[in-house]
Amino acid sequence: MDLGIKGKWALVCGASKGLGLGCAQALVAEGVNVVLVARGAPDLDAAVNALRTSAPGVSVLGVAADIITPQGRAAALSVAGGPGTAFDILVNNAGGPPPGDFRAWEREDWIKALDANMLTPIELIKAVVDGMAERGFGRIVNITSGAVKAPIGILGLSNGARTGLTGFVAGLARSDIAARGVTINNLLPGAFETERLRTTLGSLAQKAGQTVEAVADSRRKGVPARRFGNPEEFGAICAFLCSVHAGYMTGQNVLADGGAYAGTF
């Protein structure tokens, strides 16, 4: 299927590895020009070089910056022809805050979580959405978490911040931008093979007094697919949400978790 987005420009955050890189790979494969943003320059450079090799005819740029800071956002948005207006696709993605017991979290911990997983995505949406609407096409995908639908106790910081973003998007996606060709959807990963999952499993293992592998095996058994997801299949879902074929989908929370969430809705 031709997704109809060849030649578009995309900004993908947290794109040097994991789910963000999976999204960037899928978009590049569709002929989308991509700007990757990540804090770690070595991993970012490796990702950019690999993508350029895989798709010689596509522009792939890297910005080593902390997207959570105003300076980092300015650096990312100044690429591809102007301050944000040139991006047709935005993939918001940031590592989640650390797990733990809410009793140990101070106000500063909550502010950091909100900055990374709610306020920064909103700032980036604000920077690009009007340009998208003027051109009559825009796709915004926020990578949140399956914990938005099924909260995980030790991920309280993430539960709170990402749910806040979800509420904001629910309203904005249904505003006048919907009639101007701009969609905003959230993509909710369950257990995928990423560093984030390994960190969470490590915390659970320590709390339970078990090995990480034992906890991982138990977690897999709780997934009807009996496995963890991989970033490539996640990226394919993201690319579809960015396609011309998904123009009638907006304000949705798309759950990719191998069937782990047992609810009907």
Helix and strand arrangement:
Elements: E1 9-13, H1 18-29, E2 33-38, H2 41-54, E3 60-64, H3 70-77, E4 89-92, H4 107-135, E5 138-143, H5 156-172, E6 182-189, H6 195-208, H7 212-221, H8 231-241, E7 253-256
Parallel strand pairs: 1-2, 1-4, 2-3, 4-5, 5-6, 6-7
Helix pairs in contact: 1-8, 4-5, 6-7
Structural description of this entry:
41% of the residues are buried. The mean pLDDT is 94. Strands 3-2-1-4-5-6-7 form a 7-stranded parallel beta sheet, with helices on both faces. The radius of gyration is 18 Å and the shape is globular. The protein has 8 helices and 7 strands. The chain has 265 residues and is an alpha/beta fold. The protein has helices spanning 18-29, 41-54, 70-77, 107-135, 156-172, 195-208, 212-221, 231-241, and strands at residues 9-13, 33-38, 60-64, 89-92, 138-143, 182-189, 253-256. β4, α4 (107-135) and β5 form a beta-alpha-beta unit.
Number of helices: 8
Unreliable stretches covering 5 or more consecutive residues: none
**Helix amount:** 40-55%
Reading the helices and strands in chain order gives EHEHEHEHEHEHHHE
Anisotropy-based shape: globular
**Strand count:** 7
Structural class: alpha/beta
Could you tell me the mean pLDDT? 94
The value of Rg in angstroms is: 18 Å
Major beta sheet summary? 7 strands, parallel
What oligomerization state is this entry in?
Answer: single chain
Query: What's the N-to-C terminus distance?
Result: 29 Å
How large is the share of residues in beta strands? 5-15%
Q: Biggest sheet: strands side by side, in what order? A: 3-2-1-4-5-6-7
Protein name: 3-oxoacyl-[acyl-carrier protein] reductase
Family: Belongs to the short-chain dehydrogenases/reductases (SDR) family.
EC number: 1.1.1.100
Keywords: Oxidoreductase
